[in-house]
Every structure is written in structure tokens, then in C-alpha cells.
Amino acid sequence: MTNHLPIIAIQVLFLGAFISGLVGYKSNSLRKFVIFLATGTSLVLTLMLFKPVMMEGQIISYWMGNWVPVSDWAIGIGLEVDQLSLFFGLIVTVTVFLGAIYSFKYMSKDNGQDKYYVVFMMLAGSVLGFVFTGDLFNMYVMIEIMTFAAVGLTAFRNHKAESIEAAFKYLVVGSIGSSLILLGTVVMYAQFKTLNLAQITALLNNAQHTPVILFAFALMIGGYAVKAFIVPCHVVAPDAYAAAPSSVSMLFSGIVNKAGIYGMIRLVFVVFASMNLPSMQFLLVFLGTITMFIGVTMALAQSDFKRLLAFHSISQIGYVLTAIGLSTILGLTGGLYHALNHTLFKGLLFLCAGAVLYSTGTTDLNKLGGLAKKMPQTAGLFLVGAFAISGIPPFNGFVSKWLVYQGTFAKSMETNNPGYVFVTIVALIVSVMTLASFIKVTQSVFFGQLPKEFENAEEVPLSMRIPMWILAALCLVAGILPTAVIDYLIKPAVLAIKSAGNYVAVMMGQEYATKIYTEGIAIPKYDYAMAGWNPTSWLILFGVLLIAFALVALTGGFNPRHIVGAENNNAKFDVFFSGEAAEHSHVAGNDLFWGLKHNLKGYFHFMHDVHNGVVNDYALMVVSTTALVMLYLFLLVK
């Protein structure tokens, strides 16, 4: 029975899409019941895999139509759920279940809900199918369903021009990414005459990377970089995150970009087994570092709540990619931990943004303010997410970021390469800027004076708050119980990444795998001190906090002349004189970092030109990036 759980968990989601489409236009309550039942059942089925896979170390395989390998050759489509697959599968099913509950009330003001839930469930089923499949072409099929479902959800509120524009950009750039993955898959099939991941992994083990293989490898890296929104393939993400309903933005941040990260991990570590090469490690760390930095600096320049969160989502994916690029046990542990944490705290933040939009009708930071008086629970939950993403203890972001800092610094000591120390410094600076950015958001949205037009704003319904409470609780649990999270979730997934032989043995047979692999790996014991719970780490964190507040002040964030406006030069408007205008002045989202944006105006002008909204330029960026990756692999990867 256990072997059937993965395929049933996937089918339940697709079946939920089909049934909700049949009954949705007749009864709203029946549609909600179908969606709740389908997402809940898929979650339960995935949780049933936890004991055999995570705790007992089993790898679950299932051959569609019972097409098992013949004469050591895989000819059928197989599902294979190892610890890495289940780690991401749990992220998918938890996120989808909470997103569905949130949607019930959040989407009640929209028309066409029957269509919304069909596409919502298609997105959910495709991502779960993607992480559970053991077939290279099936990965493409599922990622393509995911892409078109994401495009449909981006365009759902099609009475808004920005939704249509964002969806078109996503369609073009996302299709290019899918095409790159498909072409790479075709080349791999032409080379190996099989699409089974385990068999391709075995055939590539210790094999020379020929130009044809490197060509396919580069194509798929470029394609999955688009799906994960890695800089410079990230340009459609801010528009899509901002235009889509917040329940969908949560899925984009929580599972869509994780699909891209999972695909990249599966390819570079398991299938191509290339992460023992310093050149591949440098490539991923470089892409991750620029992703985290560009993401956070662009977030500082935003005046829209959801668009700001979108750039932060890109930035946090940079942490994940940087950490896994280290290819060390410590790096992989930090990277996967942060991937989990990113889903939790960024999902919470997007739901909080949705709550603000639901109650006020806007996400413009320059129009909002003082909502903590009307929405105290949402304000409190937002602070949990803000503290978590900024790496403040005792929340989860602190632990995973601390592991990333340790991983990059340890890599520098191990390789005697000072470049990794620079990466550590960048990661710390990005954390400082993240905290500074959320000071801006907190002030702009929840504190200050309440605008008159929002005096009737109120707390969102209970069904919207429940998923937010759950995510906030998980942010706290994952922060105060790091050893349990690592032992039961992260450690098994890291072992799976480093143990390709087990993956091959389950699908192709132990005898087949024994001929190729003789491997074993140990993962060190993690304790609270290693996870950052020690006096030294707290002292460093205190220094980081001081730097964050100094950054805000030194860049002009608290300059009273700019708080009240340049036209108010009378001394009575100075905050130190407690003048009426200054006393009730609101630090708008566009004002807090005016100094930083002015001092770095050259950089921000350049980034503005990059994010110019021209889809042809975006497509060129993806193709050019893939070409550069291909050239890099040809020159440096042997």
C-alpha cells in the first residue's frame, strides 16, 4: 500500500481540479468542500510517507502500469520518492492546504471562483508530481503544467491591466524556460535512450562530460533558473507576485520557485553528479550571491507591499542557492533549512499582505499606515514573519541564516579561498538590509497615523487568520527546535542528495547499482550551539541590529525635513519641537530610504532599466544567461 501513496497523493489533487470544475458553478459550499477534501487528503497521504521514508530510510518507487525495467533497462514511467523528494513534497502539500483554506474567504469578492480553484489545483498537482517523479520527461510535463497554471492564476483578475501584462510576461519567459528544459531532455534521451533519472544517473557516474552532455546540462540549468527566479532570470517574478491574488503569491513563493530549486538540486547533485567540481560550486555560489544582493536592494526601492515581498522572495532564494552551491554537508543543511523557512515566513508575509489588501483595497505603502489599531492580529503576525525573514531569534530564519554564514565561512577555511569570506559578508549585509527594509514596511503599513479612508478597516475573517496563525507557529517551532527539524527533515534530505547509489538501487535493482556505486556518508551531529544558540552568535546578532538601525539613520531615513516634506522648512515642523504636522507625520514607503536611493542612484537607474517591462529584453536575458552558462561549462567543467 505504501508504494501507492505518492501516485494517489498526486491524483487526488488533479481529481479535485476536475470535480471542483464540475460542481463549482452549482454550489460554492460544495466546491469548497471538494477543495478542502482534496488538499487535506493529499497532505495526509504525504504525511503517511514520513515514517517509512524519513525515519526508516526507505525509498518508495512506483512504476506506472507496472512497466518495470527489462534487462536492466528502464522503459516505463516511474515515481521515486526519496528523502529529498518527500522533503519538498511536504512543503508543497502543507502550503497548498493552507493556501486553499485562506482562499475560501479571500477570493469571495472575486468572480469566476470555479475557474480559480481548477487552476489552483492543477498548479498544486503539477508541483507535487514534479518532485515525486523519477522520469526526466515527466519532470518537463509537470513543470509545463505548473507554468501554464501559474500564468492563468497571474491573469485571474483580468479586469486589471497589470494582471494581463504580468501574465503575458510570465507566459513568454516561462515558456522559454520550459523550452530549454525540453530541449535538454531531448538531447539526453538521444544520448542515453532512456528517460529514467536513476538509470541516467548510473550511466553518467564517473563518465566524462562530453560537449553534448554539457550542452544539455546548460540548457536545463538555464530552464530551472527561470523556474526558481534566479537573477538574472527573475525579471517576471515581481510583476507576477504583485498581480496574482495573495493566496497565489504564497504558492509562487512557497512551492513554484522551490520546484526550480528542487530540479536544480536533483540535476547537479544526483543526475550529473557535478558538484564535486570547484567550477560548479563557484557557478551556483556566484548566482546565489548576486541573487540575494540584487533582490534585497530592489526591495528597498519598492513602494508596493507585494512587489517588495516579491523581491525579498528572490533574495531569500539566493541564500538557498548559495548554501547548496557550497556542496558541503553544512552548506546543504543550511540551504535546505532555509528553503523550508522561506516557505513558512514568506508564505506568512504574503498572507498578511493579502489581509491588508482585503481590508483596505490597496497595497501602496504611501497610502497605508496605522493599521495596527484596526488589525492587531495581522500586525502581530506580520511582525513574526518580519522577524523571521530578518534572522531575528527565536524565529526560524535566524537558525538557517546562521548555518549559511557558518557554511560559507567554513568553506573559506577548507579551501583557503578568501572569496567565500566575501560571500559571508554579503550574506550578513543582505540580512541587515532585509531588517532595514521591514522597518520601512512595518512603519508604512501598521504604525503611524491611520488615514481617514481606512477608519472602517477591520480584522480579516477567521478562516484567513487560521493559516496565518499556523505559519507563525511553525516559524517559532522551527526556530526553537532546530535539532529536531534537522534530525527528522533536513538530515535525511541531505543524505539523499549525497547518496545517489541508493536512488539508483531502488529503481534499477541493488545488483545494478552495486556494479557502479560504493559510497557512504556521515552527517555530523547538530546541537543548539551549532544552530546559533550561543552567546557569541547573539553578540554578533546584536552588532548586526545596530548596523541595521545605523543604516536607516545614516541614509536619511529619520531626517525630519524629509519625513514631513521638503516644502515644510519652518522649525515648527521639526519632530523635536513636537509641531502638529511633525507629530502626526507618516514615514511613507517612498521616504524611508531616500538617502540610500539618492547615493546609489546610478545603480538604481541601471536596475530600473533592466526591469523595463519589455518582454523581448526579458527573453534575451534568459537566452543570454543560458548561453553564458553553456560557455562557462564548456571552458571550465570537465
TrEMBL record:
<keyword id="KW-0812">Transmembrane</keyword>
<feature type="transmembrane region" description="Helical">
    <location>
        <begin position="168"/>
        <end position="192"/>
    </location>
</feature>
<feature type="transmembrane region" description="Helical">
    <location>
        <begin position="339"/>
        <end position="358"/>
    </location>
</feature>
<feature type="transmembrane region" description="Helical">
    <location>
        <begin position="212"/>
        <end position="237"/>
    </location>
</feature>
<feature type="transmembrane region" description="Helical">
    <location>
        <begin position="249"/>
        <end position="274"/>
    </location>
</feature>
<feature type="transmembrane region" description="Helical">
    <location>
        <begin position="280"/>
        <end position="301"/>
    </location>
</feature>
<comment type="similarity">
    <text>Belongs to the CPA3 antiporters (TC 2.A.63) subunit A family.</text>
</comment>
<feature type="transmembrane region" description="Helical">
    <location>
        <begin position="379"/>
        <end position="399"/>
    </location>
</feature>
<keyword id="KW-0472">Membrane</keyword>
<protein>
    <submittedName>
        <fullName>Uncharacterized protein</fullName>
    </submittedName>
</protein>
<dbReference type="InterPro" id="IPR050586">
    <property type="entry name" value="CPA3_Na-H_Antiporter_D"/>
</dbReference>
<dbReference type="Pfam" id="PF00662">
    <property type="entry name" value="Proton_antipo_N"/>
</dbReference>
<keyword id="KW-1133">Transmembrane helix</keyword>
<dbReference type="InterPro" id="IPR001516">
    <property type="entry name" value="Proton_antipo_N"/>
</dbReference>
<feature type="transmembrane region" description="Helical">
    <location>
        <begin position="116"/>
        <end position="133"/>
    </location>
</feature>
<dbReference type="InterPro" id="IPR001750">
    <property type="entry name" value="ND/Mrp_TM"/>
</dbReference>
<feature type="transmembrane region" description="Helical">
    <location>
        <begin position="469"/>
        <end position="490"/>
    </location>
</feature>
<dbReference type="GO" id="GO:0008137">
    <property type="term" value="F:NADH dehydrogenase (ubiquinone) activity"/>
</dbReference>
<dbReference type="GO" id="GO:0005886">
    <property type="term" value="C:plasma membrane"/>
</dbReference>
<comment type="similarity">
    <text>Belongs to the CPA3 antiporters (TC 2.A.63) subunit D family.</text>
</comment>
<feature type="transmembrane region" description="Helical">
    <location>
        <begin position="308"/>
        <end position="333"/>
    </location>
</feature>
<dbReference type="InterPro" id="IPR003918">
    <property type="entry name" value="NADH_UbQ_OxRdtase"/>
</dbReference>
<dbReference type="GO" id="GO:0042773">
    <property type="term" value="P:ATP synthesis coupled electron transport"/>
</dbReference>
<feature type="transmembrane region" description="Helical">
    <location>
        <begin position="618"/>
        <end position="637"/>
    </location>
</feature>
<feature type="domain" description="NADH-Ubiquinone oxidoreductase (complex I) chain 5 N-terminal">
    <location>
        <begin position="67"/>
        <end position="117"/>
    </location>
</feature>
<dbReference type="Pfam" id="PF00361">
    <property type="entry name" value="Proton_antipo_M"/>
</dbReference>
<feature type="transmembrane region" description="Helical">
    <location>
        <begin position="84"/>
        <end position="104"/>
    </location>
</feature>
<feature type="domain" description="NADH:quinone oxidoreductase/Mrp antiporter transmembrane">
    <location>
        <begin position="134"/>
        <end position="413"/>
    </location>
</feature>
<feature type="transmembrane region" description="Helical">
    <location>
        <begin position="6"/>
        <end position="25"/>
    </location>
</feature>
<feature type="transmembrane region" description="Helical">
    <location>
        <begin position="32"/>
        <end position="50"/>
    </location>
</feature>
<feature type="transmembrane region" description="Helical">
    <location>
        <begin position="419"/>
        <end position="439"/>
    </location>
</feature>
<keyword id="KW-1003">Cell membrane</keyword>
<feature type="transmembrane region" description="Helical">
    <location>
        <begin position="538"/>
        <end position="558"/>
    </location>
</feature>
